[in-house]
Amino acid sequence: MELVTPGIGLIFWQTVTFIVVLFLLSKFAWKPIMNALHERETSIENALSAAEKAKLEMQGLKAENEKLLAEARMERDKILKEASDAGNALIETAKQKANEEGSRMIAQARESIENEKRAAITEVKNMAAVLSVDIAERILRKELSNPQAQQELAKDYIKEVTLN
Amino acid sequence: MKKLFILLFSFLTISAHAEAAAEGGEFKPGDLIMHHIADDYTWHFADGVTLYLPVILIDNGTPKVFSSSNFYDENHALVPYEGYVLNHGHIYRADANGQPAADQSSLLDFSITKNVASLFASVILLFAVFLTIAGSYKKNRGKAPNGIQSFFEPIIIFVRDEIAKGNIGPKYERYMPYLLTIFFFIWFNNLLGLMPGGANLTGNIAVTLVLATLTLLITVFSGNKSYWSHIFATPGVPAWLAPIMIPVELIGILTKPFSLMVRLFANITAGHIIILSLFSLIFIFQSVAVAPISVAFAIFMFFLELLVALLQAYIFTLLSAMYFGGAVEEHDHVGDHGHGDGAH
């Protein structure tokens, strides 16, 4: 019975002390501790969500970068293709032009050769004519140095001239 | 550490044995154990190391303060002092023969007993620990905890998140100071009670009575409309049952703190009784051969008691939080007939 009979003295001291402890600890310990914990938790939460946001942003940036890179790559390919096309076309035209020029020059050359040839032939012919007249003149002069030969010739001419 | 405990415990037990022997022969374990778990006017740390605590009496409204050493003569025998006598752990008015007189009315005993002294010591410890921690929180604002702060922070967070938030709900914040205070008060005092020479404060029914009464008062004063309507007009119960239901519910208000009071008192006292009984075995058998077994069991019990010290603090706090939660809970759904007090 002794054990389960609360004593007035201890009830009094316990009540007073506990209430004082409760009051003082609430004011000077629990309040700052709870506030500090709350503050820290909020700051950690904020930091985490900021990190999450930054991560998402980074991902967005990365995706954008990749997109830009892909675009740039495509652009480059396009430009390269265009350039090579343009180059090919240029070469093609140049070749064509060169061919044309070449054939034109060949044609010209052929023409001028022809002309030269014709001129040369004409000159040879003329020369041959002069030479033959000269030769003929010399021969004639020699032949006709004796009267008999003159006569004979005259005779030949006369023979040739058929009197119609 | 263990050795130290054993040594200190055996010190206590031996000195008690010596006392018992001096008082007249036979060893009575019951008396020894009751002496150790009951309150006292002196604090007996070890043989020859005794602190005589002040006696404060209010006799018919006149306060009287004197040292309890006045009740003992040089042979450590009890003697009457200024018309008062110490008999079986209580102070009575003495008659002419130095025996308790028949008339003991309006004699109030507010002495600083061993338990009160231990209470003050625990309060100093509580202040020292938690004001230091509060200081560290101010100093390490927004930084990671260090030192003693990092030991107690998880416990404080556990009380807040698992005990308060889980059982009280969104209004938990205003109960936090009370819950934290009872949790650490009970835990610290349970541990101090396990110290060699420590007082059995939380195993004293007066202490648990006060703690349980505070829980009751807070519950009753924070009870909202739905809490009281559950008591005076329990939903789903026909009106003609009210004459039975209302007394039952009112008794229910009282049985909850009553169970808190008895649970803490009985658990702590029982732990002390078991450890002391195990040591008493050595003296009952009057054989040193029993000592290893006694000590082994006592060590086991001691570790169990360390767990119980924390567990009982947790249970008291948890149930208090549940009662508060029941008092502030909003029952806005009509179909809910549950009581939500968790004490069934």
Automatic annotation (TrEMBL), chain A:
Main location class: membrane
Pfam family, one: ATP-synt_B
Membrane topology field: Single-pass membrane protein
Record's keyword terms, sorted: ATP synthesis, Cell membrane, CF(0), Coiled coil, Hydrogen ion transport, Ion transport, Membrane, Transmembrane, Transmembrane helix, Transport
Coiled coil: 44-82
UniProt xrefs under InterPro entries: ATP_synth_B-like_membr_sf, ATP_synth_b/b'su_bac/chlpt, ATP_synth_F0_bsu_bac, ATP_synthase_B_chain
Subcellular location: Cell membrane; Endomembrane system
Signal peptide region: none
SUPFAM superfamilies documented for this protein: F1F0 ATP synthase subunit B, membrane domain (SSF81573)
TM region positions: 6-25
UniProt keyword annotation of Cell membrane present: yes
Family: Belongs to the ATPase B chain family.
Complex and partners: F-type ATPases have 2 components, F(1) - the catalytic core - and F(0) - the membrane proton channel. F(1) has five subunits: alpha(3), beta(3), gamma(1), delta(1), epsilon(1). F(0) has four main subunits: a(1), b(2) and c(10-14). The alpha and beta chains form an alternating ring which encloses part of the gamma chain. F(1) is attached to F(0) by a central stalk formed by the gamma and epsilon chains, while a peripheral stalk is formed by the delta and b chains. F-type ATPases have 2 components, F(1) - the catalytic core - and F(0) - the membrane proton channel. F(1) has five subunits: alpha(3), beta(3), gamma(1), delta(1), epsilon(1). F(0) has three main subunits: a(1), b(2) and c(10-14). The alpha and beta chains form an alternating ring which encloses part of the gamma chain. F(1) is attached to F(0) by a central stalk formed by the gamma and epsilon chains, while a peripheral stalk is formed by the delta and b chains.
Entry function: Component of the F(0) channel, it forms part of the peripheral stalk, linking F(1) to F(0). The b'-subunit is a diverged and duplicated form of b found in plants and photosynthetic bacteria.
Protein name as it appears in the record: ATP synthase subunit b
TrEMBL record, chain B:
Main subcellular location of this protein, as a coarse class: membrane
Subcellular location: Cell membrane; Membrane
Ranges that cross the membrane: 116-137, 175-195, 201-221, 264-285, 291-316
Pfam families: ATP-synt_A
Lineage top rank: taxon: Bacteria
InterPro entries: ATP_synth_F0_asu (IPR000568), ATP_synth_F0_asu_bact/mt (IPR045083), F0_ATP_A_sf (IPR035908)
Topology term for the membrane: Multi-pass membrane protein
Stretch forming the signal peptide: 1-18
Keywords for the protein's UniProt record, in alphabetical order: ATP synthesis, Cell membrane, CF(0), Hydrogen ion transport, Ion transport, Membrane, Signal, Transmembrane, Transmembrane helix, Transport
Role: Key component of the proton channel; it plays a direct role in the translocation of protons across the membrane.
Protein family (similarity comment): Belongs to the ATPase A chain family.
Name this polypeptide is given: ATP synthase subunit a
Species, as recorded: Pontibacter amylolyticus
